[in-house]
Description:
Layout: H1 2-5, H2 8-45, H3 62-67, H4 73-80, H5 86-107, H6 113-124, H7 127-135, H8 140-159, H9 163-177, H10 182-198, H11 203-235, H12 255-274, H13 282-304, H14 311-327, H15 330-334, H16 349-361, H17 376-420, E1 431-435, H18 468-479, E2 485-486, H19 489-495, H20 499-502, E3 513-516, E4 519-523
Parallel strand pairs: 1-2, 1-4
Antiparallel strand pairs: 3-4
Helix pairs in contact: 2-5, 2-6, 2-17, 5-6, 5-8, 6-16, 7-17, 8-9, 8-10, 8-11, 9-11, 10-11, 10-14, 13-16, 13-17, 16-17
Amino acid sequence: xxxxxxxxxxxxxxxxxxxxxxxxxxxxxxxxxxxxxxxxxxxxxxxxxxxxxxxxxxxxxxxxxxxxxxxxxxxxxxxxxxxxxxxxxxxxxxxxxxxxxxxxxxxxxxxxxxxxxxxxxxxxxxxxxxxxxxxxxxxxxxxxxxxxxxxxxxxxxxxxxxxxxxxxxxxxxxxxxxxxxxxxxxxxxxxxxxxxxxxxxxxxxxxxxxxxxxxxxxxxxxxxxxxxxxxxxxxxxxxxxxxxxxxxxxxxxxxxxxxxxxxxxxxxxxxxxxxxxxxxxxxxxxxxxxxxxxxxxxxxxxxxxxxxxxxxxxxxxxxxxxxxxxxxxxxxxxxxxxxxxxxxxxxxxxxxxxxxxxxxxxxxxxxxxxxxxxxxxxxxxxxxxxxxxxxxxxxxxxxxxxxxxxxxxxxxxxxxxxxxxxxxxxxxxxxxxxxxxxxxxxxxxxxxxxxxxxxxxxxxxxxxxxxxxxxxxxxxxxxxxxxxxxxxxxxxxxxxxxxxxxxxxxxxxxxxxxxxxxxxxxxxxxxxxx
Length: 530
């Protein structure tokens, strides 16, 4: 019975046929993605400059992911390996990116190698990927897998008659790895409908597609919810609620707060575009964005004003254009505005949408009734400039991280020597607490100043504020190979505000490392909050 419905030979033949039919496009996607990826990210792939959240996650902490509702992330990490291996993680991430680019070519019927080149670059070299690899490298491959599964759900929905059911499964897994990337699937579907309307399709002909897309998201959400319940039954670890990074934020918001956050979502999208984070001067980036979006608007109007696009379709097309920033910021609304660069990966898809619209506007074979301006060469040129700036930004961030890592380890090595010189201190037995942030490190390097806006790059010290005790312990255990014993979290937080410690001098002054009761206090700076 099993052999009748499932055969290894049949599966092999199916995959072989698919690969043969798509080999050329797939190889081009892999080539361009790895070209951009290796040119930009090789430095971090070949080094171990761990900092920020990648410090405590050198060895995977799966309990925290389960509390955040990322139920499938621990399973993936168990398969990949729990140790953060930079080269392997970047390699896997680029493989997933390559497949994502390939699926995008299928969704939007892209055959041009030039288009594939730019889509590969946009998906591989952007602010979110740079932030991920510089400070959250342990998450890079799993997040890229989440994006791939989100794109796969849209491909299955578009490709097969019952694809919305298959897509729901893929979407459920994507959400279970990282919830924020549901916005990728929503944005792609809205953009797909926009292109269909600009092609001259009637609203009525797209109605069924619209219903099936909604069904796919509902089923995907149900599958994810069931996975949460199963994970709780198996592990006993509850999902975090009513706090930072929790899933139920929107349920604690009033209707007015939701409306206000929706308006802020639009503002956030515009701000991220206008104040694009990069090493380049802000005025240059602003001008570049204005040029690209002006060309995109012109191309959209060219398509919109054609005779084949009827009035109702024109109005709906305009509505979808206005809706796109909102769906690309859906996670902003769901979290009441708590977002960072990792969660906003979908923002960079807007540049993919721009080059597709501009390409569509000069496609003479499909749109021979169109009076067009051929803006595509200019759009490609300015998009390449944007990618080049992203590459330089990536290298600058990675150099910044490496220099800060070396300086921080040098400082902590000297501090550790002073700790071990204290009378009555026993390594691994005497409890220690660190207070404040180092004043001996430069607060900001002027040449790197634009990069401090990127998530995970706000400080020059590798141990950042949130989860400081956890990160401090990881630094000493993993990077200094020292079994330091830190006080428990509650006592750690209380001692940050202790009046006796406030009067202590700051390292490296004499008396900056001293006993307060039976706890050895190391005062690194005046910043006494956790």
